[in-house]
Specification:
By secondary structure, this protein is an alpha+beta fold. The protein contains three helices and two strands. The protein starts with a strand and ends with a helix.
């Protein structure tokens, strides 16, 4: 797995960045495409659901993991 790379996102009109490994970033993009959802909208959804004790990058990684783990 590669080292994390910073990626820019816009959440509720504010720019932010997350550092994700290439594999997680690609899986995140794939899930957004599967759902027919813009990447920033999916990131905002994950951001709203995460607790204050977790960073956005970790929340995205867990979202990706759960998405693929929970598939039939």
């Amino acid at each position: 797995m590669n080292r994390p790379v910073k990626h820019s996102l816009t959440l509720h009109g504010h720019r932010t960045s997350v550092s994700l490994e290439a594999e997680f970033w690609q899986a995140f993009r794939d899930i957004a495409a599967e759902r027919g959802q813009p990447l920033n909208a999916l990131a905002a959804e994950i951001d709203e659901a995460r607790g204050t004790d977790m960073g956005l990058a970790s929340a995205i990684r867990l979202f990706v993991l759960r998405h693929y783990r929970d598939r039939p």
